[in-house]
Each structure stands twice: as C-alpha cells, then as structure tokens.
Design goal:
The N and C termini lie far apart (136 Å). It contains 7 helices and 70 strands. The protein is globular and about 145 Å long. The chain is mainly beta. Among the domains are: 93 residues, no CATH class; 290 residues, Ribonuclease Inhibitor (Leucine-rich repeat, LRR (right-handed beta-alpha superhelix)). The protein is 6% helix and 24% strand.
Length: 990
C-alpha cells in the first residue's frame, strides 16, 4: 500500500516537471520591458485623460513588473515575447523616429496605434523591421507625408489600416503597395491622397473581405473584377468624383454586406440582378450618375437596413416591392426625378427611422399609411407636387420630431374631427420641427398647430393664410425658438407672440401687417431674439417708439420697405446687419451709431435722413462690409478721417444725396472695396486717380457731380486692374479721352458666375438650435443703382455680375477717338456722347463683339460709319445722331433694325433707314454753322442718354439688369416733334 502511494507521488512529480510550461506562463523579456518603457517615455501623455490609463499601468514594481500584464500588451504564451500592442486612443502625442525602441519589438504580430496624435510626422521606413506583422493599424493618428514603400515588404499582413487625411501615396503606386501583400483580408486606405487609377491586381486578392478606398482621389474606370472577389463583404470607393464605373450583372453568389459608391462617377442603370445580393445590409449609391428606373428586385434585399439612392437621376415610380424591406431603418431617395404616387407599401416599413423623399416630382395625397411608421423620427417630402390636405394625425407618431412638407401643393389640414385637435390629443407628441412653407394652405392657422407643446421651429411662410390664432387658454405653444410666417396675408402681429420668451428667429416679412408696431412687442423674447424680419409690410411707425431697441442679442434686423416714419431707431450693440431702406425715416444719423462697431451691413437707403455724417463712423472699420446711404438728404463734406481704411468694406453707395467737397483720401486704404457709387451729389474734386491702386474695385460711378479738370493720367499708378463699370458722365472733365484708365481692361472672367448672379454681399446669421433653411440663414444685400436711359431716370434694383459698361458722356472731352478703343473687349455698353470728339469713327470698334449699346451722338465726328460695325451682332442700340458723318449707312445684320433717329442730324448720311437716298445730286450742304453753334452753347436742355441697359441680343441671354422704375422727361417729346437738336447743356446741378 505504501509502495503504491509512493509510486503515485513519483508519477505526479514527473508529470508536473515535464508539463510545467503548460501551467506557468513565462515572464516578459527584459529587452521587451525596456523597449516598451522607452517607447512610452518618447511621448507626451495627458495622464488626466480617461484614455491614458493604458500606458499609465506600465510600471516595473510589485505585481506590475511583468509587461505581459500591462494594458494593451499581448505576449506569446510559450516564449514571453511581446506579439501584440494595442495603444489606440491612448492620448500619445509626439513622433516615432527611425531609432524608436518600438522597432526592437521584432516579434510583434499586431500593432494598433490608431487615434493618437503623432504631430504630422512621417511613418518611419523602419516599420519593415517588424517583419512578423499580421495586423497594422495606424488610422486617424495624424501621420502625414508619403507612405513608406517598406510597408509592402510586410508580406504576412492580413489587415492594413492606414486611413489618414494627410498621408499620400505618390512616389510609389497603389499597385506596388499591395502587389506583395497577397494574404490581405482587410485594406483601409480611406482619405489617403492616392490620385491614381485602381489597378486590376486587386481582383487577384482572393482573401480580401474588406476594401475601403474612400476619398482617395481615384481616377479612371473601376475594375469590374473586384465585385467578383469571392470573400468581399465590405466595399467602399465613395468620395472619388473622377472614378467611373458600372455595376455588373450579379450572376454569381456574392457575400457583399456593405456597398458604398457615394460621390463617385459610377453611372448607368441598376441591374435587375442587384436583387441577388441577398446578404446586403447597407447600400449607399448617393451622389453618382445612376439613371433609369429603380428595379423592383431591390425588394428582394430583405436584410437591408440602409438604402440611399439620393442625388442621382432615377426616374419613374418607387417600386411597391420596397415595402418588403421590413428591416429598413433609413430610406433616402431624395434629389432624383422620381414621379407618381408614393406607394402605400411604404407603410410596411415599421422600423423606419428616417424617410427622405424631397426634391422629386411625387404627386397625390400624403399617405395615411405613413401613420404605421411608429419608429419614424424624421419625414422630409419637401419640394414635390403633393396635393390635398396634411393629415394632422401624423404629428402623433410617438418618435416623430421633424416634418418637412414645404414646397408642395398642400391645400389644407385634415383633422381627426370636424373642429380641432385639443391639447390632450396632441399632448404626447415629440414633434419639434414643422415646415409647411410654400404650399397653398389658406384661411386661418388652426389652433391645433399651436397646441404642439414641444414645437421649437415652425415655418408656415409663403402660403395664403389670412388670419392668426388668437391667444387663449388652449394655446400651449410656449417653447418656440424659430417662427416664420412670411409671405402670407396677415394683417396684424400674431397675438400669441405676447407669450413667447425664447424666440431666436422671427420672420413676419412680406405680409400686410399695417399700422404701428404694438407696444407689447418690446417685451417679446428680449434676451434671446437674434433675428427679426418685418420687411415688406405696411407698418407706419412704433407705438411708444423706443430710441433703443430692446433685444440685447439681436444680430439681424430687417425693416425694409414699409412706411415707417419718425427718427431712426437705434439697434442693439450686438447687431451685425441693419436694414431700414425704403421707408420715410427723418432726422439725422444719431451719434449713438458710433457704438455699433460690430455692424457688417448698414442699409439706410431711400429715406429722408439729413444732416452730416457722424465723424465717429471710423469705429466701423473693423467690421463694416456694406454702407448704403443712397437717396437721402445727407449733406456736407466727408472728412478724411471718416474711415481710416477698412479691411472689410466692399460696397459704398452715397448716391443721390447732397454731399460736397473733396473725396476723402482715406478711401484709398479700403483695399477690398468692390463698388464705389458717388453719383448725383455735389462733390467738387479732380478725378481720383489714387483709387487706381485698389486691386478689387470693379464699379466706380461718379456721374452727375462737379468733378472737373483734365484727365491726363499720371505716369506711375495701378490702372484699375479689375474695373468693369466706369461712369464719369455729366461732369466737367476735359482733355482727351482717358482710355489709359482702362489699359488693364479685360473681359471679366465669369466661369463660376451664373447668369442670374448679381452684385451682392452675403452674410450668414449663425443661430444655434434653430431649424431654418440655408437660404434663410444666408442674408443678402444686393447693390442697386440709378442710371439715365434716353433722357429717363431709371432705377435698377439689381446689377448683374456680367454687366460691363463705360460712360464718358456729357463732359468736355475732345480730339479723336483712338484706335486703342478696340482693346476694350468684353464691354457691353459704351457711351461717348455729348462731348467734342472729332475725326473718324475708328473701325477698331468692330472688335468689341460683346457690345450691345453704342452712343457716339452729339459730337463732331466726320467721315463714314465703318462697315466693320456690322460685325457687332449683339448691338441693339446705336446712336450717331448730331455729328458730321457722311456716306451710306451700313446695311445688313443689326443695322437693319436701327431706326431713323439713330442717324438724324447728319446731313451727309444717306441710305436706309434715312429717307435720303445715296447718289442724290440735290443733297443739301452740311449745316456746319448750326451744328457747331449747338455744340458750343449751353442751355437747360439735357439729352445725352446714359448707358442703355438692355437685354442680350438675339439669343445671347436675358437682360443685364432688371427692375427699372422709369421717370420720363418732357423734353423728349419736344425733340421728336420739332426735331430740335438737343443743345449741349448737359448737367443738372444740385
């Protein structure tokens, strides 16, 4: 018995000795501990950050002396060597040098340094020393520069993630990087700047399960063979706008679960065989060039949770089979050309959380079946052609927080009963944002809308509402931050606003609200209101008008186009944009404005303001972009110190006032000035050549002042390098035509300018927590100007960016028109009338092929009209009347459209449209004495029509400037009736 027990003990000891390695893990090697500690010490680590706990545990004391027990460190169970290092999101800051101790860990198989900050350093080429690496992850770690070629030598790699925005792969091709990595299962190079084609070699990586080349600048055609990889489950080549390709016919068994081509140039139709991708969970094809109809076979992809086909050109109906996708959480079909009725089967998608169908051509009523979507949190079917009523029960969907049905043809509200929904019925809804703008809703706004107690943003603009709910005990709406009811027929302020104390955005513009602004409005949201637009109403004044407006956070205030009277209200110090043009405001500009130093736009145009400008306006130099004082009664000189040189000032409009004296030389310091309009004042100065140094000045209008003196340009100055509208007409300039001013003239480059773009300044009002569209957030000031057209004053609300014009008329310029005038290519309007120009009309004017209006009338020009002018195929207005021209009028093309008055008072001219035939021996001699007398005399008659603003001729485009308001002058009738040649008195004096 004792022998047996002894034998048992002996056998147990032998077993323990021979299998000790199976029970006892070896300790971490000293060399590895040293390498890890040195690696840790090479970085700055924010130890207070929660994610820094990994490396904080790396200490050699007590039970922590074994590095295999450290966080993020994995050791081989048999050898004790460190084979895995996961320091992702460990708050490491610094760089990895070529001699880093990291590269002494030669047994590493897995290295994860993602989500750290390596301070834009390069990935060291010594990474190839870690030859046993299987998994390398350096994503989002702020590495930069070239990916080292040596990574391609890590032939054992199974997973490689280098996704970083500042890395690039230019010295070596994508082919050379992956050519040796034949075992790859995962490759993520998202955002790496590759800028090349996708090599066909990818189609040979048969083990590949994950491929992301998102936003890499890829070009060329995507290899079709990649879709056929037998194990590929994730494919993302989105964000490559120059990458073309097509979806193949999926006739093989594919394990694809996620396919994303977003923002690429893939095109063609979706193949019906896409329904064979039975494992597909996410399909994102937005922002491509796919076309055709949506195949009904998509309804076979019953595992889909996300389907995004937005921003393509799909046509036809939504296939009802999409109702089979019962696991769908997100459905995006917006911005296509889909049409027809929305299928009722959409109501089967009970797990749907987001449904975006906006910007299509859907018709019919809003589906009641949408009421089945109990998980829906956002519904956007805006910008379609939906009709009928809005089914109000949708607001009771338990998760619904956003509804946007704007820009449709909805005509009413469908309520649960014939009266209205009470607060108890809608009391549990979560709706915070409701947009019903731009529909055909009419009548009074129903109380049910105002019982949505959680509503934060409400937009009912551009409908036909004629009334407003009266404030009563049933109205529970008290948490609004954004309210827009612009573009309706409201006649009074909504009474329920009395109870709103958190409004940030309030837009009641373009209604018929009349009378005084009620006194109670001054107590509405005084601490929160940032945006207030009451423009284009019938307001006449303020009840108990305050000198200072009370809203302490106000950024944007628009009171334009009302009938406001009284003195100028003072906006809060916080105001950035203040519009009060087109009213009847009187009095001076108060000195209080001096403290409004944050103003970006100040528009006081078209009022009855008078007096001098406050000298303290130089306080605006740090912010002001637009200063518009047009059409007031301001007077006095503008001191040089009024603005010391603003780095932001872009548009100055002082036209139609009574300013006098010299121009302030400080204007030369406004280095980004684009528009300077000083027309119709009493300025008395020489031509401001010193403005020629302004590199961005495009519009300079000095018309109808007392500017005078010769126009001989200085030898050394910058010659208005960006000028495209120059109007110095109706002054007392003299000497030769100052074409040297325009030596740098060149047609404005307008590659990125749309035909409907006008001279404007756009500012953005940043309002947190408020749901307003981008167009509402961007507030635009548009430059307006007054011009004279055939003796008529015309007001143009907008001036197109395309518009180019030169007007030197009604001055005392003399001498010949130089041939160099043909260099003004791109000019559309040219007016040299009512001067003392002599000599022939230069044939080089035929080079101005964009010219639409040319006026050379009321000069002393002689010789024939050059035949080259018939090349001006866009010319719609031509006037050479009252000169000494001779010979036949050119025939053909545009000249066949000009009437007799374009050539009158040139006795030597003949041919159509004149009644005088060429070759008539009875031609009367030129009446030189009458002509010259009329040139030299001055009278109260004024002709000299200014730049004629007309449309692009014969199919070129639409009009240059729109919106004229015309005030005709009576002498035009006298001239036509009695054929009196207008005498050369050319200016009115203020």
């Amino acid at each position: 018995m004792a022998l047996s027990f002894s034998l048992f003990i002996f056998i147990c000891l032998v077993f323990l000795l021979t299998h000790s390695s199976s029970f006892m893990k070896p300790l971490c090697h000293h060399d590895d501990i040293s390498a890890l500690l040195q690696f840790k010490e090479s970085f700055i680590i924010n130890t207070s950050a929660p994610n820094a706990k990994k490396v904080a545990s790396w200490i050699v004391e007590g039970d922590k002396s074994d590095c295999c027990s450290w966080d993020g460190v994995e050791c081989d169970e048999n050898t004790g060597h460190v084979i895995g290092l996961d320091l992702s999101s460990s708050c490491l800051y610094g760089s990895i040098n070529s001699n880093s101790s990291l590269f002494r860990l030669v047994h590493l198989q897995s290295l994860n340094l993602a989500y750290n900050d390596f301070n834009d350093s390069q990935i060291p080429s010594q990474v190839h020393d870690l030859s046993k690496l299987i998994d390398l992850n350096l994503s989002s770690s702020k590495f930069s520069g070239q990916i080292p070629f040596e990574i391609s030598r890590l032939s054992h790699l199974i997973s490689l993630d280098l996704s970083n925005r500042d890395l690039e792969l230019r010295k070596h091709s994508l082919r050379s990087l992956v050519g040796n990595l034949t075992h790859l299962q995962k490759l993520d190079l998202a955002w790496v700047n590759i800028n090349s084609t996708v090599p066909n070699i990818f189609a040979n990586l048969s083990s590949l399960t994950f491929l992301s080349l998102d936003g890499c600048g890829l070009q060329g055609e995507f290899p079709m063979g990649i879709f056929k990889l037998p194990n590929l489950r994730y494919l993302n080549v989105g964000g490559n706008k120059d990458l073309t390709g097509y979806l193949p016919g999926f006739t093989w068994s594919s394990p694809l679960e996620i396919l994303e081509l977003r923002g690429s140039n893939f095109s063609g139709e979706l193949p019906a065989s896409i329904g064979n991708l039975g494992f597909l969970n996410i399909l994102i094809l937005s922002g491509c060039n796919f076309s055709g109809s949506i195949p009904s076979s998509l309804g076979n992809l019953t595992k889909l949770t996300l389907l995004d086909l937005s921003d393509n050109t799909f046509v036809g109906n939504i296939p009802p089979s999409l109702g089979n996708l019962t696991k769908l959480n997100l459905l995006f079909l917006s911005r296509n050309a889909l049409m027809g009725n929305i299928p009722t089967s959409i109501g089967n998608l009970t797990k749907l959380r987001l449904l975006y169908l906006y910007k299509n051509a859907f018709v019919g009523n809003i589906l009641h079946s949408l009421g089945n979507l109990v998980q829906l949190s956002a519904l956007d079917i805006s910008n379609n052609q939906l009709t009928g009523p809005f089914p109000f029960e949708l607001v009771n969907l338990p998760q619904l927080s956003l509804v946007d049905l704007s820009h449709n043809l909805l005509s009413g509200f469908e309520l649960r009963n014939e009266t209205q929904l009470t607060s108890s019925v809608v009391g549990e809804n979560r709706l915070t944002r409701l947009d019903l703008s731009a529909n055909k809703l009419h009548g009074q706004i129903p109380n049910s809308v105002f019982n949505l107690k959680n509503l934060i943003s409400l937009d009912l603009s551009n409908n036909h509402f004629t009334g407003i709910v009266e404030f009563d005990e049933f109205v529970t709406l008290k948490n609004l931050t954004s309210l827009a009811i612009s573009g309706n027929q409201l006649s009074e302020f909504p009474n329920f606003l009395r109870n709103q104390h958190e409004l940030e955005y309030l837009n009641l513009s373009n209604n018929k609200i009349h009378g005084h602004v009620p006194e109670w409005i001054w107590n509405t949201s005084t601490a929160s209101l940032k945006f207030l637009d009451l423009s284009n109403n019938l307001l006449t004044g303020f009840s108990q008008h305050p000198i200072f407006l009370p809203w302490t956070s106000l950024q944007y205030l628009d009171l334009r186009s009302n009938f406001l009277q009284g003195s100028l209200p003072i906006p809060p110090v916080s105001t950035l944009h203040f519009f009060i043009s087109n009213n009847s405001i009187t009095g001076n500009m108060p000195e209080y404005f001096c403290n409004r130093s944050s103003l970006i736009v100040l528009d006081l145009a078209n009022n009855n303001l008078s007096g001098s400008l406050p000298r303290c306006l130089d306080n605006f130099e740090a912010s002001l972009s637009v200063l518009d004082l047009r059409k007031n009664k301001f007077q006095g000189s503008i001191p040089d110190t009024w603005i010391r040189g603003s780095q932001y000032l872009r548009i100055i409009n002082f036209s139609q006032n009574k300013f006098q004296g010299r121009l302030p030389r400080s204007l030369a310091k406004c280095t980004i000035l684009k528009v300077l309009d000083l027309s119709d004042n009493k300025f008395n100065d020489r031509f401001p050549f010193w403005l020629g140094d302004l590199p961005n000045l495009e519009v300079l209008i000095l018309r109808s002042n007392n500017f005078n003196g010769p126009m001989e340009t200085p030898q050394n100055y910058l010659k208005f390098p960006d000028m495209r509208i120059l109007d110095i007409s109706n002054n007392d300039f003299m000497g030769k035509l100052p074409l040297r001013l325009l030596e740098n003239w060149k047609a404005k480059k307008i590659e990125n300018v749309q035909l409907s773009t006008y001279i404007h300044e756009t500012s953005y009002v940043v309002i947190e927590k408020v749901f307003v569209s981008g167009s509402e957030n961007a507030r635009t000031y548009t430059y307006s100007m007054m011009m004279t057209n055939k003796g008529k004053n015309m007001f143009y609300e907008k001036v197109q960016e395309l518009f180019t014009a030169i007007d030197f008329s009604s001055n005392k310029f003399l001498g010949e028109i130089p041939k160099s005038i043909g260099n003004l290519k791109g000019a559309q309007l040219l007016n040299l009338s009512n001067n003392y120009l002599t000599g022939h009309i230069p044939s080089s004017l035929g080079n101005l092929t964009e010219l639409e209006a040319l006026d050379l009338s009321q000069n002393k020009l002689s010789g024939e009209i050059p035949h080259q002018l018939t090349q001006l195929t866009f010319l719609e207005v031509f006037n050479v009347s009252y000169n000494n021209l001779t010979g036949p009028v050119p025939q053909g093309k545009q000249f066949d459209t000009f009437e007799n008055n374009s050539f009158e008072a040139n006795p030597g001219l003949c041919g159509k449209p004149l009644t005088k035939k060429c070759g008539n021996s009875d031609n009367a001699p030129f009446q030189h004495s009458i002509f010259e007398a009329s040139q030299e005399s001055r009278s109260s008659f004024e002709f000299g029509w200014k730049i004629v603003v007309i449309g692009y001729g014969f199919g070129f485009a639409v009009g240059i400037i729109i919106g004229p308001i015309v005030f005709a002058r009576k002498h035009d009738w006298l001239m036509k009736t009695f054929r009196i040649r207008p005498l050369s008195g050319r200016r009115r004096r203020n």
